[in-house]
Amino acid sequence: MATRVDPFREMDRLLTQVLASDRAAATMPMDLYRDGDHYVLHVDLPGADPGTIDVNVEDRTLTIRAERTARTEHDVQWLAKERPVGTYARQLTVGRGLALDRISATYADGVLTLTVPVAEEAKPRRIEVQHGATPTSIEAGAAAG
Predict the structure, then answer these.
(1) Where in the numbering of this chain does the SHSP domain appear (predicted)?
(2) Cβ(61)–Cβ(68) under 8 Å?
(3) Is residue 21 pLDDT above 50, yes or no?
(4) Does some domain include residue 144?
(5) Rounded distance, CA 145 to CA 128, Å?
């Protein structure tokens, strides 16, 4: 039985593996949702040294950095080495209406969790409307309809 040899197939497979591991090292998968008066951000940082995690806010940019260092095993023969090492970094531009000075952060089981409160001035509030002699209450942010 004759088999067709494609010299580029193996090269393509190896290149895909290399590029995929580079992409994995440069990304931080995340989930973001709103829970009442807070936004919650979960960022996967498996294997990151907690001492290297840095979260900061400058103007409206939230920056998260962490590092996973390479294992330095001596006199071993690696059979597979797929876990990315290096510095992870992600920047998010956040909108107005958040209390960026009150962000809290925890790191457990390889997941960084940031809790970002909604600023007081951005929360819905009731505005009293005067009409003639009878005051009426309308909730701000309610859809007209």
Answers:
(1) 21-132
(2) no
(3) no
(4) no
(5) 19
Closest CA to 64 of 102, 100, 28, 108: 28
Domain containing residue 59: 28-139
pLDDT at residue 24 is higher than 50: no
> 17 and 86 in contact (C-beta within 8 Å)?
no
Give the residue with greater pLDDT, 95 vs 53.
Answer: 53
| Extended beta strands in the chain, E state | 30-35, 38-44, 54-58, 61-68, 86-93, 104-108, 111-117, 126-131, 134-139
Q: Is the distance from CB of 114 to CB of 40 less than 8 angstroms? A: yes
Q: With respect to residue 110, please indicate whether it lies within any of the assigned structural domains.
A: yes
Q: Does residue 103 lie in a domain region?
A: yes
Predicted TM-score (pTM) of the model is 0.66
Q: Phi, psi at residue 21, to the nearest 5°? A: -70, -35
Task: For tokens 């936004």, name the residue.
Answer: 39
